[in-house]
Amino acid sequence: MKTNFASSTLGRKFVMAITGLLLVGFLVAHLSGNFLLYQKEGSLFNAYAQKLASFGVLLYAAEVGLVAFFGFHAYNGIRLAFLKQRAKPVKYAVTQSKAGNSKWGLASNNMMVTGSVLLVFIVLHVIHFKYGRGLAEGYAVQVNNEEARDLHRLVVEEFKKPLITVLYTAVMVMLGFHLRHGIWSAFQTLGLTKENNSNKIYFVGGVLGVFLGFGFLTIPLYIYFFV
Questions:
Q1: How many Cβ atoms are within 10 Å of 216's Cβ, its own excluded?
Q2: What is the spatial distance between Cα 117 and Cα 119, in angstroms, rounded to a whole number?
Q3: Which residue, among 13, 29, 22, 132, has the nearest Cα to 79 in the 3D structure?
Q4: What are the backbone angles phi and psi of residue 142, rounded to the nearest 5°?
Q5: How far, in Å, CA of 83 to CA of 86, rounded?
Q6: Higher pLDDT, residue 30 or 88
Q7: Mind listing the pLDDT tens digit for each residue in 67-86?
Q8: Nearest CA among 66, 23, 16, 26 for reference residue 185
Q9: Distance between CA atoms of residues 182 and 165, nearest Å
Q10: Are 149 and 114 in contact, with CB atoms under 8 Å apart?
Q11: Cα(92)–Cα(223) distance, rounded to whole angstroms?
Q12: C-alpha separations of 131 from 5, 127, 164 in Å
């Protein structure tokens, strides 16, 4: 019986790799915009948020695309984890961990855990900030002589809450670990890792993962302690 490529293990890994790398690109762009939060008065960040909102239908289309990427990535990741667990007895998995490349075993084994936490976080993060308090609740500011949502005020108020700042920081640490292994795994799936560059790609993935995770977690800490 023929197996559909998209539903095969290789197909799911391929989807994971492509969507994962695209999401890394989104994270880089998202972090670049969030760096504007380092301006205490918030005019640049509010102007940035207003500019995004002005794209209208194009912004909604981009958001739908992101949801699709996240959905495909998460679904295939969870599906692959269950298939792997079902296919390999516990004893065999332990043996492989000792005999295989144990250096990457811990990160690989925790990908489903960190990924699941990140998925829940993304949903809550969007509800929290995108659909949080706005013009109707008095969060208004003038941007280019137009009334706009004062998103900077909302972000600052939320990150002044200790529990939110601690939870956000902890999840960003998980993001760093998830990306550290995920970037290398994506390149491996796409056939871009060779014997002479695998360690280098893993190192680059680690650096990028740390950069993104650390970059995101410094923002709530900066706001909590200095703004």
A1: 20
A2: 5
A3: 13
A4: -90, 125
A5: 5
A6: 30
A7: 898 988 998 888 888 887 78
A8: 16
A9: 25
A10: no
A11: 48
A12: 38, 5, 17
Amino acid at 104: W
The one-letter code for the residue type at 17 is A
For residue 3, give both structure tokens. 């197996």
Q: Element (H or E) spanning 143, and its range?
A: strand 140-143
Over residues 131-160, the pLDDT tens digits come to 999 999 999 999 999 999 999 999 999 999
Structural domain for 129, as ranges? 5-226
Domain count, the chain: 1
Q: What is the DSSP letter of 136?
A: G
Task: For residue 77, count other CB atoms closer than 10 A to its CB.
Answer: 22
DSSP helix/strand/coil, 40 = coil
Q: Which residue in this structure is represented by tokens 């893993």? A: 202
Q: CB within 8 A of 81, min separation 6: which ones?
A: 111, 112
Q: Name the packing angle between helices 162-189 and 198-226 (round to 10°).
A: 170
d(CA 184, CA 121): 23
